[in-house]
Specification:
Layout lengths: L6 H24 L6 H14 L3 E2 L12 E4 L2 E3 L13 E10 L2 E10 L5 H19 L7 H14 L3 E2 L5 E3 L6 E5 L16 E4 L2 E3 L5 E3 L6 E3 L5 E3 L2 E6 L2 E4 L3
Antiparallel strand pairs: 1-4, 2-4, 3-12, 4-5, 6-10, 7-8, 7-9, 9-14, 10-13, 11-12, 14-15
Helix pairs in contact: 1-2, 3-4
């Protein structure tokens, strides 16, 4: 069931989104060679709690950490551990916050020091795919207008989008209807209405689209071990166009 949000509810979610913005600012200052993923997770959890929020992922279906930290060929759901980051890594950081009855969800892929030209191109293209998808989040458009915009941008660069993982509605629950694929023909799916809030999240691979889950039961990696990038924002569809709640 799709649940539309009122302007006041969207305002609450926007306020929660500013906690996420702070978390990414902290992460960009923190991430450098020699720092551990567990340290980063602890620092972000501390900030969320200090702002009166709850790390939305911790305990969600048994997930053991406050954030998902996915490095290089890891697509999503990487569990923070003691491994240290290295120069040239790319770090996908996925953060969820729950406060005042509502969730928000956002992701950024952040370079560790200097990265290769190919890795930077992947980050730039995935970010641009997110931007193009968000631009389609307008009343009267169809759901797959978002999907098509994301896939088109990734394919223009010779990259692939992960097909087995999708974006989603979000609000009083972390995952609400509808699902938001990152692929597909335009003009299909539900008609977008003001009050719909979506987590739009391109996951783009340098190589093939296929992925698999590691033995920890959480970490999803590219099947060919090529680099992957993940960007995500929580976006409200409004009469004035898309409103990004996590920026």
């Amino acid at each position: 069931m799709i649940v539309l949000k009122s302007p006041s509810e969207i305002a609450v979610m926007h306020a929660n989104g500013q906690i996420v913005v702070e978390c990414f600012e902290l992460a960009r200052d923190f991430i450098r060679p020699g720092r551990s993923c567990r340290e980063l997770d602890a620092a972000i959890e501390g900030l969320i709690v200090a702002r009166g929020g709850v790390p939305a992922f911790k305990g969600f279906h048994g997930y053991p950490a406050a954030t998902c930290i996915s490095v290089n060929e890891e697509v999503v759901h990487g569990i923070p551990d003691e491994r240290t980051l290295r120069e040239g890594d790319i770090v996908g950081l996925d953060i969820g916050v729950f406060k005042d009855g509502f969730y928000v969800d956002s992701a950024r892929t952040i370079p560790v020091g200097g990265i290769s030209r190919g890795a930077q191109t992947l980050l730039d293209v995935t970010w641009d795919a997110l931007e193009r998808g968000i631009e389609q989040a307008r009343p009267g458009n169809r759901l797959t207008d978002i999907s098509h915009a994301v896939e088109t941008r990734a394919k223009q660069a010779g990259f692939s989008v992960v097909r087995s993982l999708v974006g989603h509605g979000i609000g009083r629950r972390m995952h609400e209807d509808p699902q938001v694929p990152n692929f597909g023909a335009p003009g299909q799916g539900i008609v977008l209405e003001a009050g719909l809030v979506l987590a739009i999240e391109p996951m783009v691979n340098v190589g093939a689209a296929e992925v698999f889950t590691l033995e920890d039961g959480w970490t999803i990696v590219t099947a060919d071990r090529s680099l992957s990038a993940h960007f995500e924002d929580t976006v409200a569809v409004t009469v004035d166009g898309p409103k990004i709640l996590t920026r």
